[in-house]
């Protein structure tokens, strides 16, 4: 029987734009994702987050679901334009009240609030002023963090500054498959830097406002990069620099990796990095959030065969892999989830052990892991999502293997509590352990939710 450590933090995760809806209520301003989803052709089926899971109006019901699941923590994100409609200036009270009720509702149910400040919904006004490639956005982000620290700092258990800045920078500004749909590689690297800087400034702001017991964190979608053969070592190095060390370097060591600067020299001279920025990005963290779905396989491109680009991040016209023109992203063997992502939990164990090796002493939490499948509601109303249970079981086992080998992993959050707006895929991809009926908004527990409840209650994986 596989058993987890006693105080292991079991949770589920969601993000504001994916679940809240109420996109134009109570003074909320527009975000880049409203603009993106309202642009014809960018999201599958023309879906938008206008209503999403209507979580904004069904807060109590969803809180009760969390309590019934028995989770010890809930990871949600704050919609920046809900609390600061234009991304600067005074707070929008009704918007802030929603998060205050959410946090109080969690605490009343003995669930630790884990708040992500930025899960991709930049206020549109800040994008109009240049977005993340514009340095001022990092300053605005820190101001917003201070505001949130002032408001909720006495009650939030863990603050996560950014969710997957990889996606914000490269999918938002290089490949353009995410908001704000720009395809400007140099701007994407400037965005990357201002996200790193914004993270550091936000941690600093939160440390002065939040309770001293509050944990500071950031969530990265680190890529576990493997080469097809030993000849692909340089392709692995390049992808690793761009995907992982571009964030780990400044945030944890206070410096960008030299090879990254050299690799991208034809794209930018990095003059947007000012003296002191790297030190400002590097603030001591209490825990590192790791999102993991599948590993990445690369090969040095021979320049003649058709170049494979199966990185799992949708084919935009441009690549998110800046200055990696000679790197191929190779399709990996199945089985696959509905996202087309291969299922390979060994990457999670290896990734956790690498972090443990490279950054000893920094506790880790899996802030997202889960799978989309085309669930079927059976005639008896049950959703027998055996494949999702199998995916979760495999990955949780992989976590225990990393723990047994020495990694300090403190918690695990399933993505996601409920089916929601899966960005450019709209509602077509269902990641929830709870089903949301798109017509009635009714929530129904899938078999995986019942399974997870048992895991949480016992701290063991049922055989
Ligand atoms: C991650 C995102 C999350 C969700 C999952 C499937 O990249 O952080 O919002 O979309 O992927």
How would you describe the overall organization of this protein?
This protein has 463 residues and is of the alpha/beta class. It has a single domain, classed as TIM Barrel. It is built from 15 helices and 15 strands. Strands 2-3-4-5-6-8-11-12 form an eight-stranded parallel β-barrel, surrounded by five helices. A three-stranded mixed sheet has the order 7-9-10, covered by helices on one side. The protein is globular. The mean pLDDT is 98. Beta-D-fucopyranose binds next to loops. It catalyses: Hydrolysis of terminal, non-reducing beta-D-glucosyl residues with release of beta-D-glucose. The active site is at 164 (proton donor), 368 (nucleophile). One of its GO terms (biological process) is cellulose catabolic process. It comes from Nonomuraea longispora.
Give a brief rundown of this model.
The protein is an alpha/beta fold.
